[in-house]
Specification:
The chain has helices at about 1-25, 25-35, 45-50, 65-75, 125-135, 210-220, 225-235, 245-255, 260-290, 295-300, 305-315; strands at about 55, 90-100, 105-115, 155-160, 170-175, 195-200. With about 325 residues, it is α/β, with parallel strands linked by helices. Strand 3 (about 105-115), helix 5 (about 125-135) and strand 4 (about 155-160) form a beta-alpha-beta unit.
């Protein structure tokens, strides 16, 4: 039974994760993240004008010498599976563009989704590591030495579906200039090259005031069915779901609490129990068709006589 539970949990988690990442990678949802974490432009404007078409979900490895290598291999139309086995990947990675003095400045964005805000290591440090990889992997892709001015600014946005505070929060980490002696300055564009943004999705929907956090709470923490959530997304956030997004939302809701351990455990218990009952009832149906007595079936299956009679009626 333990192996069944382990496999059930593993498969459900993988299915949930794939659906959640697919949902988050939609331009409308990414525009919400950029609106409240990166830019102050309108959501529709960001989605239509400022997000590139190179949205990559779970295919770019993080390890040194592999991130930019895969990008080059992909651009040549070659299979990337052989160089990514046994590695870890960015959840979502894409390009965004911001108008600056009449020009469009390219940004590289990474979005990560995490169940907990406090695993056995610092998520902020991991975010800084991701930013470092996003910077270094630009070599021979976005720039070659000595053209360091072509380095693109990078963001790593971390969505954590638990929060130290019930109302949630958004925290930004960035490089700043500090004068130790004198006041010699440099352009902010030359050093403000990376930002880590932690988005903590709170547990108490009534206390959450920020619009992004409200929307994420509805998606990932509120207990409601997919139809209800889809209607709320439309009415409260003006988000119309595509067919693909509707399917992904259904998967997320059908797996109960999904990424939360208590929900997964409860779902597994219910699923296994239901599976056991159905299996026993199948045996009872076969015995009924063979003509075995109600008492014989009850002794073997431990079903009630009343339930066996109900099953017998379904045969006719």
């Amino acid at each position: 039974m333990e192996n069944i539970e382990d496999n059930f949990m593993k498969n459900n988690k993988a299915t949930y994760d794939a659906a959640a990442k697919g949902f988050l990678s939609n331009k409308t949802i990414l525009a919400w993240l950029l609106k409240y974490c990166v830019s102050d432009y309108g959501i529709t404007e960001i989605a239509e004008k400022y997000i590139g078409n190179d949205i990559e979900v779970g295919i770019i490895p993080i390890e040194p010498d592999k991130t930019n290598a895969v990008r080059k291999i992909l651009s040549e139309g070659t299979e990337y599976r052989t160089v990514t086995e046994g590695t870890t990947f960015f959840d979502i990675r894409f390009s965004a563009y911001a108008p600056d003095d009449g020009e469009m400045i390219k940004l590289i964005i990474n979005v990560e989704a995490q169940k907990k805000n406090d695993p056995e290591y610092s998520l902020v440090k991991r975010g800084i590591f991701h930013c470092s990889r996003l910077l270094s992997s630009q070599y021979d892709v976005e720039f070659v030495e000595p053209n360091f001015d072509k380095i693109k600014k990078v963001y790593s946005i971390w969505l954590t579906f638990t929060s130290p505070q019930p109302e949630g929060g958004i925290t930004q980490y960035k490089m700043k200039e500090h004068h130790i002696v004198g006041d010699i300055s440099n352009s902010e564009n030359n050093y403000d090259l990376l930002q880590v943004i932690m988005v903590y999705v709170g547990s108490n929907g009534k206390k959450i005031e920020n619009r992004l956090l409200k929307m994420l709470h509805l998606l990932f923490r509120k207990k409601a069915n997919a139809v209800s959530k889809q209607q709320q997304l439309k009415d409260e956030f003006d988000i119309e779901l595509s067919t693909k997004m509707t399917g992904e939302l259904n998967i997320m809701c059908n797996l109960g609490e999904g990424i939360f351990e208590d929900g997964i455990t409860q779902g597994i218990a219910q699923g296994l129990k239901l599976g056991e009952i159905k299996g026993v009832e199948k045996i009872a149906l076969k015995m009924l068709k063979k003509g075995d007595s109600l008492e014989e079936i009850q002794e073997l299956t431990d079903l009630s006589i009343q339930r066996i009679k109900q099953l017998a009626l379904s045969i006719n």
